[in-house]
Description:
Keywords: Chaperone, Cytoplasm
Structural class: mainly alpha
Strand content: under 5%
Number of strands: 2
GO molecular function: Hsp70 protein binding; ribosome binding
Number of helices: 16
Region (Disordered): 1-27, 45-96, 250-390
Domain J: 104-175
Subcellular location: Cytoplasm
Amino acid sequence: MSATQPITPISISLPVASTSAAPTTLSKPVQRKLVPVGGAYAAHARRQASGKTFDEDDAAVKAENERLAEEERKNQPEDDGVGEEPESKELLQTSDPKNYKALDMYAILGLSNLRYKATQDQIRLAHKKKILRHHPDKKAGRGGDANDDRFFKCVARALEILDNPERRKQFDSIDETYSDKIPDAKTKGDFFEVYGPVFDRESRFSETPVPSLGGADAPRDQVEEFYNAWYNFVSWRSFEWYDKEINEGSENRDDKRYTEKKNKSDRAQRKKEDNARVRTLVDNALAADPRMKKFRQDDKAAREAKKNKAKGITTDPKKAKEDEAIKAAQEAAAKEEQVKKDAASKANKATDKKAKEAARKNLSKSKKAIKQIVTDNNYFQPPGSTPSANDIELQLNELDLIANGLEPEETAELKKSLDGTPDVAAKREAIVSSAKKLLDVGKVESGRFQQFV
């Protein structure tokens, strides 16, 4: 405190309480010295000395606390590759120690960049840093809420999990920051760039070391060893992290046994699905591996050479190589030609689709226009008369039969002929002529037309 004013004791006369059971008079006053002390007085003295208002003083105190906290972070050891990971507001405010299975244990300790690669020393060092920063007493000193110790408890829980090899393995087994997706058989791209990182990712779950994918020039025995190892892959993933908690306080033994049985069944199912996923990965890789394709071609060539030798046919290696190159070129050309044909077919289909769509729209417009012409001409009734509802319905239905039976071009031509003549009788005759045409070719059954006959 930087106050310059001296603290002056205050003398106040206070009555002394009587110890008798039934006092009748007050005791005589005595002198007591009161000295102003405590946080409230210290803040008052600080404001008096600095001449700041309450808001200004609060802002100054907050800035000083932030400066001290930043200085504390800088002075903390950053050795062993742990460093200082930023803490998001969401992480600090939503982490709940009661729902610990939903927590990202590595993010809680600031080890998101290391995760399963973090050593036990790094985990303990990261825990120490978090404890120093988030201890309730430290929060109170920085003006925080000392009663909100949820994140502090999450830090303790994270150490409890990650410092125990068995519990850590359970968490690493389901770490959701790692993708379980695998390339499918149709995935395009460089084989080694597509599959290499996936096998590296999956290899950490192996109970025994497994070989890496290798490169395009890997020898045959190395490639075969790779696939043999992965077809016999044994994963240590247990999926126990997903187990439903057993209520140890429950006296119902049947409930406990059911929960244990259900957990065991769910773990077995997840294990089965994960093994199938890895097997599918290996199957897809084997089918797409260009090295295996080359080995099969070499085997085929060797069988052919052996077969020809048995028949007394000598094969010039140079000519065989030339023939193979010609065949490969022909296959490449055929493949390229097929790609062009597929592209042209796709383009033609798109054009046909657009043409059909345009024809459909034009047909719809023509149908509406023909119906409107019939309506405008009073459904071909004599002048001064009103068509009945039955006549209207019959004519509209028969117009639909005609429009649906004619080709789109014929429907458009009918509309054109109706537009081209002002004579009502000629208009009706054009429609009747179209109806007769449909009857003649059998597109419409006899007797369907009653109005336009």
